[in-house]
Q: What sequence folds into this?
C-alpha cells in the first residue's frame, strides 16, 4: 500500500516542527513514513506498508501485534504548527 498526500497549511500558520522519518522492518512486513516540507505552506506526506504473506507460529502473535501497534502510533503522528 503506497499513499502520498500534499497537505496545505492554512494562512496565518507556519510549520514549527516535523517528525523524523520512520522505517520499521520485521519478518511480518515493513512500514515507511516521511513528512517533507515542500515550501512554507505545503508538506508532503508519504507512507508505504508492506505485509508479507506467510504462516507464522502462534508464539509470534505478540510480536505481530506490537508491529501493528507501532504502525498505529506512527499513523497518529502530529505536525507542530505555530501562529505566524
A:
Amino acid at each position: 500500500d503506497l499513499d502520498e498526500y500534499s497537505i496545505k497549511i492554512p494562512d496565518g500558520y507556519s510549520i514549527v516542527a516535523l517528525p523524523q522519518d520512520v522505517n520499521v522492518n520485521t519478518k511480518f512486513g515493513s512500514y515507511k513514513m516521511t513528512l517533507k516540507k515542500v515550501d512554507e505552506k505545503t508538506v508532503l506526506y508519504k507512507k508505504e506498508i508492506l505485509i508479507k504473506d506467510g504462516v507464522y507460529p502462534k508464539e509470534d502473535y505478540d510480536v505481530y501485534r506490537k508491529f501493528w501497534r507501532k504502525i498505529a502510533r506512527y499513523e497518529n503522528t502530529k505536525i507542530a504548527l505555530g501562529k505566524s
In short: The chain is about 20% helix and 50% strand. The longest strand covers residues 29-39.
